[in-house]
Amino acid sequence: MKYHSAALAIWLLLADAVCSPLQAQVGAIEIVCHRGANEYAPENTYAAAQLCIEWGVEYVEIDVRTSKDGAFYILHDATVDRTTSGKGRLRDLTNDEIESLDAGGWFDPKFADQRVPRLEPYLRWIKGKAKVYFDVKDADLKKLIDLVYAVGLQDDCFFWFGNPLHVVEFRRLDQKLPLKINVRNAADVKNAVERFKANIVEVGLDNMSDELVAACRERGVKIMIYHPQKDAEGFRRVVQWKPDMVNLNHADLFQRVMRESSK
User: Fold this and answer.
1) Is the pLDDT score of 5 beyond 90?
2) In the Cβ-directed half-sphere of 16, how many Cα atoms lie within 13 Å?
3) What is the mean pLDDT of residues 55-78?
4) Partners of 182 in beta bridges
5) Where do the DSSP E strands lie in 27-112?
6) Looking at residue 17, what is its pLDDT?
7) Close Cβ partners of 205 (under 8 Å, ≥ 6 residues apart)
8) Domain limits of the chain?
């Protein structure tokens, strides 16, 4: 445990030394890296977030879950099986058990030093370097909201919940933190704002329409297009729509497309 903590501390110091925080945007569309730079580094790790920072993207998306001891960790799946050297539900593992796992070797042996990030130190590390998109899978919402304010990320984040009941609870607890709702059409936009006070709506590229854009602009809601494919032509279509944000897996390719489009 002490060796892993020391190795991670050294890695983070080196990473901080090679990049400048919040580099200039490539264009007006804010980029959200889905689970970090997951094409080049293991998803939801410091290494995946570090690449996003070096690229100068605006947001890193992370998945929040809770350990047996009640601590928040960053992991997509309910179990640790797919992305670590361990097995079992994260909810059933202690902090020590989780932090002993290799969360990078499955992707490439050079990432064997990566661990499942504990949320609070991760947020303190990334603050000022990139904003955070919280995909909340399993968490005490009051405790999570309090942590966001304690770290000072309230103006540099937004939230999403797969369970509508959690959305209702989140809005009961807090009216200010930005909330994202998934939509397919203009009617969904209206419902997202009226029912949940959504600040951002996410829509697949193929569901984009003039009516949906108009519904968002009328209500002051940001549009985020989700396009996870490695698809230069699709990215050109995204740029043509001029959304506020884009959520994707291949930020480096999208940045190249944006640069080409600006010429």
Assistant:
1) no
2) 12
3) 98
4) 202
5) 30-33, 59-66, 72-74
6) 44
7) 225, 226, 227, 234, 237, 238, 241
8) 2-261
